[in-house]
Amino acid sequence: MVVARWVQLVLLPLGVLALYALAHAAGVVLLLFIVAAVVALILNPLVSFAERARLPRTLAVILVYATFFTALPVAGFLLSGPVADQATSFADDVPGLVNQASGSLDDLQGFLDDKGVDVQIKGQTDSALASLQENVLAGSGEIVALTGELLRKFVELSFYVILVVVLSIYMLIYAPRIGELVRGVMPPGDGTPEDDFPTRVQRAVFGYVRGQLLFSAIMGVSAGASLWLFGVIGIFPDGRTYAFAFGLFFGLMELVPYVGPVLGALPPVLLALVQDPLTAVWVALLFLALQQLEGHVVAPNIFGRALRLNPLLVILALLLGGQLYGFVGALVALPIAAVVRETLVYLRRHLVFEPWGTGQPILIGRHGDAVETTAAAAEVQRASDDEHVQAEAPRGS
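The chain above was modelled as a monomer; its predicted structure follows.
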């Protein structure tokens, strides 16, 4: 497909401006549709798999969603046993941890008094607690107002979640029609799945999900095993006790862009800080090393293969998504980046821009190789058309 000069000059810039204006005006509505589309792309392979059992597509969509919402409580029930045991153990250890922390404060206060340092840690702590109590009593009205605001936000968020689910269900039901519409808009491929635009987009998004789950699993297991090892060798004794819970939490937090690794490291670091500041330093260094391993070894290898994007583009996509739509924007930034990449690769294979100068540009083949000039391509096309006309002509003519 050859893009004429006037289209390059007029329609393409106008199309970009129209998309920008639509995105700016739509706001949350556009974000909801984007999130629903990402969810539909993630679940569509499962729906296609269910259709192989000769189920109607609507029934296959209902089955996939029912399985998904059933699997979440089942997974929570299976994981609740070890986590509940460790939570109970931690609750039993809380009085001892508080006494240990109080003893550490007493030792620190004694050390400061012996050295002549006029700092009253214990007194300031008690004063801070008393001040906190007064502020809580005085600000009870503000707490009520804050509770009402949080309740309103929760209701609004619940509405958005339900809307995303409903939109994704409709997108899954009408996915074949949407695919045909997209194929009609995009330049035609060669008929193979490797050169079919909707199929390429589907594979890109599903590859991202597969890479993200593998990445979270690797980091969670690494954190749990490292904490368990710290507990065995005596650096962080409680690490052996709570290794499973801390590792599971760290792996789940890796699903959150930006702040996820920091949030995942906070519980073990705080627990170590209550016991001994030096232990907290060792635990913090452990998670710092894990984050360096994550950023320089694990993430480039996994996401580099899943998204086939340069790490700088990955960072740019996360920053743009966060700037435009906050946390949710950063969450869906990488799947959208994968879709954009596949779109550009597909268009590069099937579009040729009409030249502006007097030179003859080089046509780019399907695999990125230079095949022939525009004039040569036109000559080959005319020869092919002549042969086709001669083959179609009657024998007696």
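Strands lie at 2-3, 352-353, 362-364, 370-373.
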